Amino acid sequence: MLDLRTLQRNRTLRYGLPMMLLVVGGSFGLREFAQIRYDAQKYKRKLDPSLLAKVDVERQSAILEEEYEKVKELNLLQWKNIRGPRPWEDSREYQEQQRSRLNKKE
Questions:
Q1: Is 62 exposed, middle or buried (0-12, 13-18, 19+ CB in 10 A)?
Q2: Tens digit of pLDDT at every position of the chain (106 positions)
Q3: What is the rounded CA–CA span in Å between residue 69 and residue 1?
Q4: Integer Cα distance of 59 and 52 in angstroms
Q5: Share of the chain above pLDDT 90, in %
Q6: I need a labelling partner for 59 at 20 to 30 A (CA). Which of 1, 18, 69, 73 fits?
Q7: Which residues of 24-58 are buried (b: 16+ CB within 10 A; e: fewer)?
Q8: d(CA 39, CA 46)
Q9: Rounded CA separation 103/105 (Å)
Q10: Residues 6 or more apart whose Cβ sits within 8 Å of residue 40
Q11: Superkingdom of this entry's organism (predicted)?
Q12: What is the three-class DSSP state of 106?
């Protein structure tokens, strides 16, 4: 029969078994903590009423009709292409330059 000292000297039981328990146990523990995280996020993330109205399928057709009416009122044939400012340019100064150029052309 195996002696207790023989089992203590066995490298597989001494180092391998705790390592395997740590890996397998860590996997189960991590799964539980991740599930808690996702459950907490579900309760935190409640939609605003305005956003909920946009997501709601029943009201979505009414919102689409409102947006269509807004677009229908726009004059899309007489638009001007204006380049936006580059990151190194001052946006207000550049917009003023663009507006002055457009006013000169008109």
A1: exposed
A2: 567 788 778 888 888 889 999 999 999 999 998 898 888 777 767 766 666 666 666 666 677 788 888 888 888 788 777 777 788 888 888 888 888 888 887 6
A3: 89
A4: 10
A5: 13
A6: 73
A7: eeeeeeeeeeeeeeeeeeeeeeeeeeeeeeeeeee
A8: 12
A9: 5
A10: none
A11: Eukaryota
A12: coil
Distance separating alpha carbons of residues 91 and 104, to the nearest angstrom: 20
Containing 51, the helix (H) or strand (E) segment is: helix 49-55
Size of the chain in residues: 106
CA distances from 22 to 7, 29, 33, 48, 58 (A): 20, 10, 16, 43, 51
